[in-house]
Design a protein that fits this description.
The chain is α/β, with parallel strands linked by helices and 299 residues long. It folds into two domains: 153 residues, 3-Layer(aba) Sandwich (Aspartate Aminotransferase, domain 2); 139 residues, Alpha-Beta Complex (Aspartate Aminotransferase, domain 1), CATH 3.90.1150. Helix content is 44%, strand content 19%. A six-stranded mixed β-sheet has the order 2-1-3-4-5-6, sandwiched between helices. A five-stranded mixed β-sheet has the order 7-8-11-10-9. The longest helix is centred in the middle third of the chain and has 21 residues. The radius of gyration is 19 Å and the shape is globular. The structure holds pyridoxal-5'-phosphate (PLP). Pyridoxal-5'-phosphate binds next to loops. The site of pyridoxal-5'-phosphate (PLP) has 11 residues, from loops.
């Protein structure tokens, strides 16, 4: 009987859970554009238990105002505001300080940092976490293996220095892409052209290494060239690793498999993505090497 408010485009795992699984447990879900505070206010119902945020969001790179949204939700009686802060990392953003009740990180990404271990973290009130531990770990079996935990802890030690390197290389790559004639649009929170750059400047102490961009030539054609010709960047999914990773996210594919937007939301998604976007996770390599690699395939 609970109700959840979710962004209309976010990490596909959560988007699919909300669309396919939660309704079977009797949880209703509404989808909103988190940058439209009025739409968020309108979506909240008396039985809304949670507002879920993701910032920057995968794959739209939208940045939402955690403090404003947490205040709005709590004022309207929503108990929990949860923030998936995987893209930002704790180096960039501390959502609990901005009024959130839960923070979620995929440890598989920046925090582990090496692309060799899977894990996740939920940060929140002890009472809630105790309940979650009993249900998610003991009853459902979501327990991390000791070796994965060890790898992630080992990786986490270098997170601050890695994030500096991710940001430095990403800013150089984003500026290169923005100026490239074969590229039509770049979304990186550290660029002044990002639609929520002002929020990002306030809310992120590091702009991280994630970006998306679109090309003049059809994406699948360039993706095929990337697979053949890239030498430094790997054409692969996942993100937040030492090594740069790139992949093409076609709009038709992600709509069918995941978002299944109505006409208005689809129009908003297409306004961002067109036929699709390249998602680039900039690693900690030298920015000049990454730029040379991309220059090889963009034409
Ligand atoms: C924003 C975000 N949250 C969560 C996840 C889930 O990560 P994991 O692979 O650790 O399940 C991902 C994976 O891509 C993600 O991008």
């Amino acid at each position: 009987g609970d109700h959840l408010v979710l962004p209309e485009a976010n990490y596909v795992g959560i988007a699919e859970l909300a669309r396919d699984t939660l309704p079977r447990f009797g949880i209703a879900v509404s989808y909103v554009d988190l940058n439209d505070l009025q739409a968020v206010a309108d979506a909240i119902r008396p039985n809304t238990r949670m507002l879920w945020l993701e910032t920057p969001a995968n794959p739209t790179m939208k940045v939402c105002d955690i403090a404003a949204l947490a205040e709005l939700a709590h004022q309207k009686g929503v108990r929990d505001v949860a923030v998936d802060s995987t893209y930002a990392t704790p180096i960039a953003t501390q959502p609990l300080r901005l009024g959130a009740d839960f923070v979620i990180h995929s440890l598989t990404k920046y925090i582990g940092g090496h692309g060799d271990a899977m894990g996740g973290a939920v940060i929140g009130r002890k009472k809630d976490l105790d309940a979650l531990n009993l249900e998610a770990s003991v009853h459902f079996g979501g327990v991390m293996s000791p070796f994965n935990a060890w790898l992630i802890l080992r990786g986490a030690g270098t997170l601050p220095i890695r994030m500096r390197a991710h940001q430095e290389a990403a800013l150089a790559v984003a500026k290169f892409l923005e100026a490239h004639p074969a590229v039509t649009r770049v979304f990186y929170p550290g660029l002044a052209s990002h639609p929520q750059h002002e929020i990002a400047k306030r809310q992120m102490q590091n702009f991280s290494g994630m970006m998306t961009f679109q090309t003049r030539a059809p994406g699948p054609e360039i993706a095929a060239r990337m697979i053949r010709e890239l030498e430094v960047i790997h054409y692969a999914v996942s993100l937040g690793h030492l090594r740069s990773l790139i992949c093409w996210i076609g709009t038709d594919d992600i709509q069918q498999s995941t978002f299944r937007h109505d006409a208005a939301a689809l129009a908003r998604y297409r306004e961002f993505a067109g036929d699709g976007v390249f998602r680039l996770s900039v690693g900690i390599e030298n920015g000049d090497d990454l730029i040379a690699d991309l220059a090889r395939v963009l034409r």
